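@channel sequence for tomorrow's demo:
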Amino acid sequence: MPEGAGQLPLEVLRARPPEGAPARAAPVVFVHGAFAGAWCWAESYLHRFAAAGYEATAFSFRGHGDSGGRERIHSFSIDDYAKDLAAIVADCATPPVVIAHSMGGFVAMRWLERALADRERAPVAGLALMASVPPGGLWGPSLSLMAFQPTLFFELAMVQAGNQSWMSLDTVNRALFNPETPREAAKAYHARLSLESQQAVLEMQGGLRVDASRLRGRLPIQVLGAQHDTLIPPAFVRAAARELGVRAEIVPGVGHGMMLGAHADRAAERIFDWIDALAGRPEREGL
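structure tokens (generated this afternoon):
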């Protein structure tokens, strides 16, 4: 396992293109969200991108998955997670495209905001945000959840306070998937969710912000939202995209866990097309 900046071993999953697959110039690095780990990319995205010719890497933040530090998860900050991402990117042979979900999107923006203050060129080839926490943090989305889904808001608040018993199967299903997803389909994911740092969540709920103007126009950015997302509703995704100087695309038929489940390919296809456009390649018919 490689080590993050805090000398904690980080779990890293890699998938390489099969022999004969078309080579892509930029590798991809997947960044998970709160309560998750590298496993959430392993179900589909990791090998799907490798099959398309990309060197694909997914890692777990400290305290998540099989990375070190689980015993002190609640002390870790967003900047600690940003250091982990920086260590993974530094290990890439060429600047990667970073594909980040939910909290991972906020971490990636926070890291890039600081990195771009110290250098002329971005350390990545592009940033794709999937149902990302907005640059302004979680305050707005949390108020929306409290107003329109008060029961789910209360349950998630209890989980964030460290009461993992409130992370019921029904809670997971309503938080991650669309309303038509069978309850049983969430079972495998429910078993793999872990604790999240209370420090990191408080920072996103409180005063920690990303100055989107420092990213705008400095690197290619894609912003994707989910039609049935109760945690980061489409209105907040569109507002974040405007701050970043791009247009959001809302993927139909999916919930917050855009990379999981039967409809994971819907967001993947949009990312493929965006990366192809960056490289000047014609859009693909499909994989």
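heads up for whoever presents: Strands lie at 12-15, 28-31, 56-59, 97-101, 126-130, 221-226, 248-251.
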